[in-house]
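Renewal narrative, Specific Aim 1. Our central claim is that a sequence can be written position by position from structural information alone. The example that follows is taken directly from our test logs and has not been curated for this report. It begins with the structure tokens describing the chain, in the order in which they were read.
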């Protein structure tokens, strides 16, 4: 039965244990995120049956100014009643309607961690498919499946081929110009969609200011790869996120792809982060971006998980 349910946001930090009554991968960090403003109480909703949470949804943001990603979506996996999916969908629909005015697109839902072999594990696959169905019942669709990679200090540093020299980014406009030259032919689904909605030049500027500059680590970590004739062939952005060290961006200029420069850039980005004390580095790429996936594997990065991104169009 679903008629006895209450859907509401939590009141604040005093109800974090109520929100965390359902298990999830972020439970250990949600209290800190709430204190630091990366989550807000009004973004964290629960479905209650007799004061017991049976579903929850929660959004996250780097800056706390607006929700950037639907990070938490959980239903009661111990309940065998198929209505658990309906409960989750009703809760999500209620929260979406409250938080996002009509005519505005909600941020994507990012389902993670997803084991690399999730389709071969009936228990895990069932859990993941249930959450995907909750989103689909509210009009969301699968946008992209991404591979998650991890390098640890127990792995040797990737070899540097030595074909490129590296320097820092000299100006905003230099970085934006390089992004504009990298974007054509990209295999990244988000970049493809954003360019299609605007233009390569406009999206390069947005990507630079809204994405790359959002990391707290300095731009002096970034590197441009230079060929022996002085031609820039690509850029790597090693960075530090709230969750640790990351390869935030790596791209090769159209016309210079297919020569293996991705290996040079990744090796340099990894070296920069280890010089900052990184013992663990993570990075993502689309399932369809096999050249980037092969580069991570070649550099000793382990494909430890996947993630599934869903969007509302």
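The sequence written for that structure reads:
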């Amino acid at each position: 039965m679903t008629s006895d349910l209450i859907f509401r946001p939590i009141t604040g930090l005093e109800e974090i244990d109520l929100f965390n009554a359902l298990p999830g991968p972020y439970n250990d960090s949600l209290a800190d995120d709430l204190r630091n403003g990366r989550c807000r109480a009004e973004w964290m909703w629960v479905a209650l049956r007799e004061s017991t949470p049976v579903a929850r949804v929660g959004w996250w943001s780097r800056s706390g100014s607006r929700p950037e990603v639907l990070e938490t979506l959980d239903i009661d996996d111990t309940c065998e009643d198929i209505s658990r999916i309906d409960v989750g969908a009703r809760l999500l629909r209620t929260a979406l309607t409250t938080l996002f005015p009509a005519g505005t697109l909600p941020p994507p839902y990012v389902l993670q961690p997803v084991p690399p072999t999730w389709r071969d594990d009936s228990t895990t696959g069932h859990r993941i498919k249930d959450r995907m169905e909750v989103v689909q019942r509210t009009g969301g669709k699968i946008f992209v499946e991404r591979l998650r990679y991890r390098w640890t200090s127990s792995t040797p540093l990737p070899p540097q081929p030595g074909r490129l020299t590296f320097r820092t980014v000299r100006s905003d406009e230099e970085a934006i110009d390089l992004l504009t030259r990298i974007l054509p032919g990209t295999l990244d689904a988000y970049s493809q969609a954003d360019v299609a909605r605007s233009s390569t030049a406009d999206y390069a500027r947005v990507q630079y200011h809204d994405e790359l500059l959002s990391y707290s680590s300095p731009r002096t970590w970034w590197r441009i790869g230079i060929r022996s004739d002085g031609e820039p062939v690509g850029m790597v952005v090693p960075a530090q996120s709230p969750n640790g060290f990351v390869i935030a961006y790596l791209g090769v200029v159209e016309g210079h792809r297919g020569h293996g420069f991705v290996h040079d850039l990744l090796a340099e980005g990894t070296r920069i982060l280890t010089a900052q004390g990184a013992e663990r580095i993570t990075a993502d790429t689309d399932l369809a971006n096999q050249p980037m996936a092969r580069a991570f594997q070649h550099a000793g990065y382990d494909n430890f998980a996947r993630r599934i991104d869903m969007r509302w169009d």
